[in-house]
Give the backbone structure.
Amino acid sequence: MYERSFQLEIIAPTRVVFEGEASSVSAPGTLGGFQVLFNHAPLLSSLDAGPLKVKSTAGVDTVYATGGGYLEVRDNKVVVLVESAELPRDIDVERARAARERAEGRLKSHDPSLDMVRAELALARALNRLRLAGRR
Ligand code: ATP
């Protein structure tokens, strides 16, 4: 085990996305992006849609598109509960484009019966997926 690593779990509703040792995690915190390294102070943060970057003990970076969630740090154990997390190669670009267009249409409509916050969040997820898939 790399001596400045910590235990990391990334858990989505239907699967364990990552379980193992990592040397760094960079996360899209609701109050701003942040990085967790070995011996980080205890922390609980909500996450927005954005890139979730894991550096392995060998120094290799893996980026996931996450739809938001929570991250907790305690005693060199980091648990990330995410609504969704995809590797760039697993992102369905057409689906993300369709989601972006739906959300943009709702936001432009000014229809008072629509939930605009929900549309904003859907747009943020779609834009993040397209960015990480390299299509925006
Ligand atoms: P959509 O309206 O297309 O469902 P969404 O942003 O509402 O998009 P989520 O609720 O964030 O979707 O995700 C639901 C599930 O679908 C998750 O398992 C997520 O990983 C997957 N998912 C959503 N969009 C994509 C995509 N473009 N490519 C791959 N997986 C996706």
About this structure: The first strand starts at residue 6 and ends at 12. The pocket of adenosine-5'-triphosphate is lined by residues 67, 83-84, 86, 90-92, 95-96, 99, 122, 125, 129 (CB under 6 Å). Helices lie at 93-109, 116-132.
